[in-house]
Design goal:
By secondary structure, the protein is mainly beta. Helices cover 1% and strands 39% of the residues.
Length: 477
Amino acid sequence: MRPGRISAAVVLVLVGVVAPPAPALAGGRVLVVDDDLVQCPRAAFTGVQAALDAARIGDTVRVCGGTYAGAVMLDKSVSLVAQVPAAPGVDCLGGGPVPDGSAMIVGAVTMSGPGARLDGLVVTGAPTGVTTSADAAGYQLRRAVVQGNEDFGIDLRSSGGQATVVERNCIRGNAGDGTLGEHAGIVADSADLIDAAIRNNTFTGNLEAISIVGLRSYSKISIRQNTVRGEAIAIAGSTESEILRNDLDNTGSGRDGIVFGGGNVGLVVGGNTIVGALPGMKFCSLCTNDHNVAPNAGLLITGNMIRNGAGSGITMAGSDSTAPVQLTRSVIERNTITGAPASGIFLNDTAVGNTVVGNTSSGNARGINVAGATGNVLLRNTLTGNTIVDARDTTPDQNTWIGNRCATDDPVGRLCATGRPAGAAAPTAIPPAPAVDRSRWPCLRVPVWDIDPVDGGAWMMVSVVAPDAPAGTFCGA
């Protein structure tokens, strides 16, 4: 999913910050570039591309402060590094200028050499700031400021076999004029992306932070510990991938948090904090530009905190004959959802055969709202203080509700196992959860806090079908 553009007029003001230069690759030469020979009077080159053309495999091209116009091609295994790395010295979220002494490329950077490295530069003023080639792998993009590009900040592609790493970058204001098109800070939709880590980056002022959709091969992708403001993360068609411990705050933006197109298999989504999103997590096969209508299967959505949203916490988009199942054979467990004006968890008829276990959905309009979903097990969830109803199921005979703690349900008396007696003390502090026992795969033993309304409770282990189990696996009642 990549919606239309926003305005991204970028003015760069240079102020004084000095940092040590990035190191060269061991054993390679260092070729120095300075556009005006002021910062580095002994530089052998005044143009970046000329230095790259002269470089041999393993060399480092070090770029001193200045502005370098024109496209740049890294077609060998070389490092292109800034004398002063830009990202560590910039207030990325606050719109602060890049540091004095930054090396700025005004034009596109294309990386096609296996293991090519871009470190610390500013890349701006291109349709797409940085593009990696799908014919190689092992790229490294670090400590850069990628901003003010018309369509995308980074178009990330990789053939796999060697990890591509994108980390500690400031990726902002890559969105064009806001009238047409589909844009993102990092996009992967035109070619394969295999074995890539996107971690510890900051995203703001783009249309989307990360958009990995496009009916290509997406495998072994890790999206971890990024800071995102006012933008979504969208993913479709992935295998063996993860979205872990990201910090998303979309308050007032009207944007979704994490959007799942179709066809994700075995995706782990855990430990993310999502604030103010519309909604926090959404399954919507037809919302992404690839329209991947394959079901999402074997997902583990665990330990996420979703709060103060503008819609539901975790939700299914409307059903469609082309995508009759959007989520199946997946586990939604131990998530905490509060402050949603709609439902904490909403499952419609596109959610089939999932396990919803040990979640806390409190202070929303509805705690868990099941509308037409079938074959799901809803086990030991805590649903309290929801204004309309704690638990609702329009097809209660087609789902299984076990041990859910709530006060109000629809149909009445069918979904809630127990409520807290009037005046009873709150449960004691919950001790750390035991680890998930995977020794009996394809059946897992998952810890669930067994709540006692007076005395606290204890951890119990519940058998569930593993997200990546073969179809038809049965793990007992």
